[in-house]
Amino acid sequence: MLEPDVLVIGGGPAGVAAATDLAEMGFTVLLAEQRDRLGGAIHRAYVGEGRSPLPVPGRHRRNWQRLQQRVIQAGSRIVTQCETIFLGVDGDARFLLDDRRAGRVISLQPQAVVLALGAVERVSPRPGWELPGVTTAGGMQVQLKETGEAPKGPILVAGTGPLSLALAAQLTATGNPPVAVLERGQPFRAAFAHVGAAIDGLRSWSNMMEGLGYGARLLLAGVPYRTGCTVTAIEAVAEGLRVTSQHANGTISHHQVRHLALHDGLASNNTGLPAQSIAGVFVVRAGDCREVLGAEGASSDGRRAAQLVAKQLGRPSREAAFDAQLFAARRTQNAIGKLFDAPALSSTPDTVICRCEGLRRADLEGLKGVQSAREIRLVGRFGMGACQGRFCARAVKEIAAEAAVSFDAGELGGATLRWPLRPVSVASLAAWTDS
Ligand SMILES: Cc1cc2nc3c(=O)[nH]c(=O)nc-3n(C[C@H](O)[C@H](O)[C@H](O)COP(=O)(O)OP(=O)(O)OC[C@H]3O[C@@H](n4cnc5c(N)ncnc54)[C@H](O)[C@@H]3O)c2cc1C
């Protein structure tokens, strides 16, 4: 096993950009990625024969080809280890990785670590969202990107944000357009209310063109894009799912579908990650894992992280400024946030809040006298499932606030360093090796 100078975790644009810059500065790098190939959320590799039938915007394809080329040129300075999952940091500040190919946990103490673990999708609890047939938009997109095939049967896409639009266009391109896209926000109306945000959105010409391309594809396929529409209930029926939605003007609609793809935005995947430095090991976060800025922002942020590592380790680095790129990416994301601003969702006592443990809103409200995240975990089991609170911490915090229980959601979501962040087999633990 390579004793790398730097461990980079996450093989998306941020991690690969950081790894290649570091290698070009003369560092040895171990690039660990949980999936079987590099690519991250946006460049999820197609596993079928030939080329993927999915259209990929040219600029994304070219950026990724350049990064892949640089990985090849780096030669032995970058060791890429796929199917390797970051589990956390142990008490001696050793970084733990679950090497699924070798079937063992390995631990390393490099000089520096770049954490580029991307984003998690937000999906707010709604009555029935735990039912089979309901998935996240990102989850459905992964399936689509990897297989090139859309799920069979009628599909409804709902929630808020541009990812819904991208998924709907990609489903259309693979021959199964969704029956509709239900957008909770009212972006066209918001463009008049927030003219500054609309102008900022237009300044990101490439993103605007990408969005218009998706819109045109849906228009040509006759897919309705309904804004101001919120899914209020999902029920299991013999043929799949009956989805009830309500428009801002009060009109109720129903859709009978096989699949429902939900999406309520993205948030940094930073559960349980160490802060800046831990016991002398320099740690820096990069890409969506630090701040959700989109694919181009993530590459720039990975390069910024490489520069910070080089400075910290006292090696001369290329002086490049990334502030302007990051500023532009942040401006675009802020504009998207304003244009797709959507009202909060409501839940009933019966609504499942924690899908890992099947816990409902009533279970949370029934926790008498709890005052801290620790008690909510230990007494209520919220944040104790396989996701370790990555997905439920936010909803639990919002509902607890209504019951006047205030606590740090980060703590429920694992802000304290506790491992494993992901499930790991006992056999792999038993085969533990320090490098
Ligand atoms: C589900 C989803 C779909 C998206 N779709 C689009 C899209 O269609 N178009 C678009 O422009 N943008 C899309 N985005 C946003 C875009 O992908 C990101 O802005 C960009 O890819 C961020 O790059 P990154 O390197 O920071 O993170 P990512 O590309 O997400 O890469 C993070 C990498 O870290 C790995 N990882 C995570 N946890 C661990 C762990 N514990 N151990 C080891 N490896 C780990 C992941 O497998 C992943 O490969 C999407 C984001 C998400 C979350």
Features:
binds flavin-adenine dinucleotide; FAD/NAD(P)-binding domain; 22% strand; 6-stranded mixed sheet; 5-stranded parallel sheet; 435 residues; globular; 22 strands
How would you characterize this protein structure?
- With 435 residues, this protein is of the alpha/beta class.
- It folds into three domains: 6-120 and 268-315, FAD/NAD(P)-binding domain; 123-264, FAD/NAD(P)-binding domain, CATH 3.50.50.60; 352-409.
- It has 14 helices and 22 strands.
- It has helices at 13-24, 58-74, 137-147, 162-173, 187-193, 195-203, 205-221, 294-312, 323-339, 361-365, 373-380, 393-402, 409-412, 426-430; strands at 6-9, 29-32, 78-81, 84-89, 95-99, 104-108, 112-115, 119-121, 134-136, 155-159, 180-183, 225-227, 229-237, 240-247, 252-257, 259-263, 266-268, 277-278, 281-285, 352-354, 359-360, 433-434.
- It has a six-stranded mixed sheet, covered by helices on one side. It has a five-stranded parallel sheet with strand order 9-16-10-11-12. Strands 4-5-6-22 form a four-stranded mixed sheet.
- Helix 2 links the parallel strand 2 and strand 3 (78-81).
- Helix 3 (137-147) packs parallel to helix 4 and helix 6 (195-203) crosses helix 9.
- It starts with 5 loop residues before the first strand and ends with a strand.
- The mean pLDDT is 91.
- Bound molecules: flavin-adenine dinucleotide (FAD).
- Flavin-adenine dinucleotide binds at residues 9-15, 32-35, 40-42, 85-86, 116-119, 121, 138, 141, 163, 166, 266, 287-289, 294-295, 298, 422.
